[in-house]
Design a protein that fits this description.
The protein has about 350 residues and is α/β, with parallel strands linked by helices. It has a domain at about 35-165 and about 240-340: SGNH hydrolase (Rossmann fold, 3-Layer(aba) Sandwich). About 40% of the residues lie in helices and about 20% in strands. The protein has 11 helices and 15 strands. It has a 5-stranded parallel β-sheet, sandwiched between helices. The longest helix has 24 residues, at about 1-25. The chain is globular, with a radius of gyration of 22 Å.
Length: about 350
């Protein structure tokens, strides 16, 4: 009996030690804190969606090559970014924007984002339903859910990394475990489809960020969940798709976005937003088809050559306020020239 009890106790101790090491000791902290409501909520089809009617303040301390900063995120009842609390979405809008943090407006207040600036310049109503870490997959799904807004123009802000995100079950996040999202997968016959998230990565990330795991039950359940998330992340990165697969997924999603826009009777504009002045992946030329494409690579390069303001946040890579102004200016010129809001 004593031997059995010793074996049981040592086994339990080893398991608890393993959970502590895998789920806590080796998971680094992040240089960010949050106040207010959750930024996103879990959705079983998409993974993470903007938290409607919420206020989230994100605070980043100073680190190498970057000053301390903070910004507020307010959303309306649809989850679109707005200037302040308590705003309701109109029944219809002129422009609907989808995309990732470049379009959502990372590190900026909403009036500084290119989506809001385009609306002001064109005298048009805008619903910005982009969200950080999104790819084309989630942009398409969010568009479909909000088709009743009946916009005259859909603007999809694309970056090069979307080719990778579209086929990744784990979205980019602060932690080395999976933030599960929808993704393009293929069946046994090779037909492409949008697969749902593997598990609730939103709860996992938010509980880790809040440090809400100090009672024994939460410590154990969250620790096991983090280990699951780390296994998912390892699986996703081990099975990383090759370039032809990424290109095929992008073409599939763009055709679906094009079809959705046609069903809505609206114009679709893809705006390529260069990261660190990089041009679009080679696969975009074949994937874009007949969709309108506004590639801003040359605009960013020209701004640099002329000594214009830095369009990127120093030490980060996201568009700065100046970068968002540049993007908005190019979109406004294109929309007016092509008469896309008539």
């Amino acid at each position: 009996m004593k031997t059995a009890l010793l074996v049981l106790a040592s086994t339990i101790a080893s398991l608890l030690l393993g959970i502590w090491i895998a789920a806590y000791l080796t998971v680094p902290g992040i240089a960010m804190s949050v106040k207010g409501d959750p930024l996103v909520i879990y959705d079983p089809e998409i993974g993470a969606i903007p938290n409607p009617s919420s206020h989230n303040r994100r605070i980043y301390p100073a680190i190498k090559d970057r000053k301390a900063f903070a910004f507020d995120v307010y959303t309306n009842d649809r989850g679109a970014r707005v200037d302040g609390p308590g705003q309701k979405s109109p029944a219809r809008v002129d422009i609907l924007t989808v995309g990732d943090s470049f379009t959502w407006g990372y590190a900026l207040e909403n009036p500084q984002t290119y989506a809001a600036t385009v609306g002001r310049e064109l005298g048009a109503s805008v619903s910005n339903l982009a969200m950080a870490s999104y790819g084309t997959t989630q942009a398409l799904q969010i568009l479909r859910r909000n088709r009743d807004l009946a916009p005259k123009l859909i603007v999809y802000g694309m970056i090069a990394h979307h080719f990778e995100r579209n086929v990744m079950p784990c979205a980019p996040s602060y932690y080395p475990f999976c933030l599960d999202v929808s993704h393009v997968a293929s069946d046994k016959q090779g037909k492409l489809r949008i697969a749902p998230p593997w598990s609730n990565g939103v709860q996992r990330l938010q509980q880790q960020l809040a440090g809400d795991y100090y009672n024994p039950v939460s410590w154990l359940t969250h620790g096991i969940d983090v280990i699951q998330g780390r296994i998912e992340y390892a699986r996703a990165t081990f099975d990383e798709a090759d370039e032809p697969t990424k290109d095929r997924a992008m073409a599939f999603l763009l055709r679906e976005m094009e079809r959705t826009a046609a069903e809505m009777g609206t114009q679709l504009l893809v705006v390529y937003l260069p990261t660190n002045y990089w041009g679009p992946p080679k696969g975009l030329a074949g994937a874009i088809g007949n969709i309108r494409l506004l590639d801003l690579t040359e605009s960013f390069a020209r701004n640099k050559e002329l000594g214009g303001p830095n369009p990127y946040i120093v030490g980060d890579g996201h568009p700065s306020a100046a970068g968002n102004a540049l993007i908005a200016n190019e979109i406004v010129k294109y929309v007016r020239r092509e008469g896309l809001l008539k």
